[in-house]
Amino acid sequence: MNPNDFVTLKHSSRVEDERLLRGEGRYMSDAPLPNQAYACFVRSPHGAADIRSIDTTSAARLPGVIAILTGKDMEAAGVRSLSQHSPLKGRDGQPLREPFRPALATQRVVHCGEAVALVVCNDPLIAQDAAEQIVVDYEPRDAVTDIHAAVAYGAPLVWPDLETNVAIDWPGLADNPVENAEKVDRIISSAKFVARVSLKQQRLHIAPMEPRGATAIYDDASGIYTLRVCSQGARAMRDALADMMGIRTDRIRVMTEDVGGAFGVKISPYPEYLALLVAAKECGRPVHWMSGRSEAFLTDCHARDAYSDVELAVDENGKFQALRIRHLGNMGAYIGPFGANIQTVYMARCLPGMYDIPHIDMATRCVFTNTTPTAPYRGAGRPEASYCLERVVDEAARITGIDPIALRCRNFVNPKSFPYRTAVGTVYDTGDFAGVLDTALSIAGHASFPSRKSEAKRQGKLRGFGLCCVLEHSGGSPVEGALITFPGDSKIGLTLNVQSTGQGHATVFPRLAAQRLGIDPAIIIHAQGDSAHEIEGYAAVGSRTAMTAGHAVIKAVDEVIAKGKRAASIALEASEGDLVYEAGEFIVAGTDRRISLLDLADQAVAMAEHGDIAESLDTKTSAETPLTFPNGCHIAEVEIDPETGNVTLLNYCSVDDCGNILDRSIVEGQVHGAIAMGIGQALLEHAVYDSEGQLIAGSFMDYGMPRAHHLPRFEDHFQPVPSSTNPLGVKGIGEAGTTAAISAVMNAIADAIPGVEGRSIDMPATPEKVWRACLEAFETQSLGAASDGIITENLASSP
Q1: What angle do CA 130, 134, 136 make, to 5 degrees?
Q2: Is the entire prediction scored with pTM above 0.90?
Q3: What is residue 201's three-state secondary structure?
């Protein structure tokens, strides 16, 4: 089937919305169990400290206290380390250093908010009271929270036994990193132009609408644990928990219902989940915990927190010759889920973006600090890579004197080069990079921007135009499964492993299967969120779901039809070769003999029982899908008031190639949400720690989140080039907006501020930073009312 046949859903209604808008969703706090107990955690107030003792005497006397658990109980239960990172080799073959991460701390705490004890009570308020009465005797130690400080000589060691704060010194993806580094060094040393930028990716909170939570159950008769938890994939969560608990996967079941947002923070187990499972077995009743927002700020995995020194060699004709990146990534106190991969492999795979850069040397040091561990957040390495590329390309345009747009066009991968093998070993299958740029420039009104800039000057404002040519990899875990069943009552079940956390799976995938089967999508019932289904695959991460789950659905449908032809040949007394399948029916070609899929499914059960066919039409299958490479161009136009530093985002347009589009409205929603998150990082968000390990931005009073008035109306357009790596021709879309927005906005700010001062602003570009950059720019270049038409007399006295 032609992949383009699936591009039919333009502005459809999401089938989930009515139920959720009526308040009929089942989130973590919506399904209390009979005889449920409540948990509260005791958390470290220190960024770094040794634990001398834990006194639970007073807390245990409170009425309603059922149990108090500490790290010793976790050890007795055989709970293993939560740090379960995939193998990663550093320089000279050295493995990733991965300290033991306990469910409850025993000897030391290494970040503020680390769990030390667990109280289980009949009442959640009593649990809080009891937790406050537990006395932990700490001996504070020196902490380190900044990545540069952590790698400096004499820095406090997060893990003294490691004798270093460097978790891994990763040399890159080259087969011979030393030889590759030497080659890139020679190219940069002899290049006509070398653009250099130093860039900071600040630490971020992920802050989904629904914080984390879980309810743990232990059945003494069967010896099986059950965890109801908000996750991005029940099977992935189950498999990880089983390993950490030291039990077989058939001894634990994970269930997930509705999830109020995730964005990467709900992929993997947290210390609380393991402690809850042990507590449920200890207490003999269900134990429930729901994070408060303050807990979430402290204990949900954080994101980003990285620093890059970037160099781009450019020849006399404006062609890119080599790229070098020296990168620092903050792991936090432990190696979080995929934490080291994000700042190494995931980031490197995005290079060289849309550009033909023949030589790349990227090396990373992943660093321990006394902060909450970092883990995936929308983009997960892609924004870091794109930010490096797009900021250094703008700097290359400045030093060469070549227009930024012309310089990009000069270095795009030639369409005739597809499939294009990059310098880091990935292979781009399709793309039209110049085409998406041309469309974006037209939509953004680039030709008339000079007149808008001049008008802004007359009004005492600065206006900037910034773009990002974005390319990312989507996919990751390639295997995903699907299950199609025929339960009767004229219904078909479609069960998936991947978990929807707002993406609209119940809308897209049943319609996809129905379209392939030629039936009414209303009869297909979507199910998810239960590891007991034993469907292969991973979580809904990395913009992988449409391509991997979609591929699995198509494969499952094809297998159902193939099975159906075998059964129909018996039911219709015809040769399989004479049968065709159309519009939900098996038909003997050239005759009026036919049988519907649903009727045949009912008969196939009896056929299988009598041995006439090998099995019923129920089908479970999996498919393997390679990476895809979504790409596009995003353009931001900003206006700055130099007297206050206020940045107004006037216009934002995006043109994305996400391959074939299965549902236009859902894709648009993904783009809008992702752009909003990128704008939040560019202008507002920053999870700040002080030098002692205290989280300063620990609430929404201290942490800036984007609101409606920060965002313009988005002009989003799509220019799909179907992918060749999957039968649907789709590429990812969930992260492109975040990946592109930070560069587009920051390049626009740099373009607006005269001189070079605007280029040195780190995210978030707060009014104070922007105001100071404007002041320095005018002072440096003596730009005032006489030369530029901008009144600057009040700048020096502005607050």
Answers
A1: 160
A2: yes
A3: strand
